[in-house]
Amino acid sequence: METNRWEERYHVRERPEEDFATAPTPLVVETASRVTPGRALDLACGTGRNAIWLAQNGWKVTAVDSSPTAIELLVQRAGEFAVQLDASIANLENGDFQIAPAAWDLILICYYLQRDLFELAKQGVAPNGIILAIAHITEANELPTRHRLKPGELESYFTGWDILHHYEGRPNDPSHRRSVAEIVARRNAHS
């Protein structure tokens, strides 16, 4: 099961440069700094680098991940920084966490790919709210997989939304080496 693989990866610190990075994702900082803080949902939050940064910057944050080890580290680090946030252990693939409709001003899905989660997240964004998603994409001569989008695929999930940022290529995040697709999309009155 995929959830067990992530728990083991966090538990043995398999990829410390990626999984235990403490600096927030640059696109999260750039995007969240441009809008008034509100309610943020960080899906597949890992050890919480983005959730903690958002909480430090005035956001009311809920962070969700399937790994108990990741959530434990997130809660510990939040305490060290004296920030308040709500952290939950939930398997997103099994629907263990319900995204409340039109409840979130910002939803993050960073370096996690679950294609059916995009529609649920879109329903969870409040009017004029934002979804920020980053996922790995295939490299030359690779086929799309469960964990990698094909080029152009991420943007197709946000037809009818205001696209504030779209990028495909090498990440502007030193903790990731593979090519990514990034999107920042705002829910408009018609979506």
Question: Can you walk me through this structure?
Answer:
The protein has 191 residues and is α/β, with parallel strands linked by helices. The protein has one domain: Rossmann fold, CATH 3.40.50.150. 28% of the residues lie in helices and 26% in strands. It is built from 7 helices and 7 strands, in the order αααβαβαββαβαββ. A 7-stranded mixed β-sheet has the order 3-2-1-4-5-7-6. The longest helix is centred in the middle third of the chain and has 13 residues. The chain is globular, with a radius of gyration of 16 Å.
Keywords:
alpha/beta, 26% strand, globular, Rossmann fold, single chain, 7-stranded mixed β-sheet, 191 residues
Write down the overall mean pLDDT: 89
CATH class: Alpha Beta
Basic shape? globular
Q: What is the share of helical residues?
A: 25-40%
Structure class: alpha/beta
- Main-sheet strand order equals 3-2-1-4-5-7-6
CATH topology: Rossmann fold
- Secondary-structure element string: HHHEHEHEEHEHEE
Integer count of domains: 1
CATH homologous superfamily placement: Vaccinia Virus protein VP39
Q: Give the termini distance in whole angstroms.
A: 34 Å
Q: What is the correct CATH architecture?
A: 3-Layer(aba) Sandwich
- How many runs of DSSP E, i.e. beta strands? 7
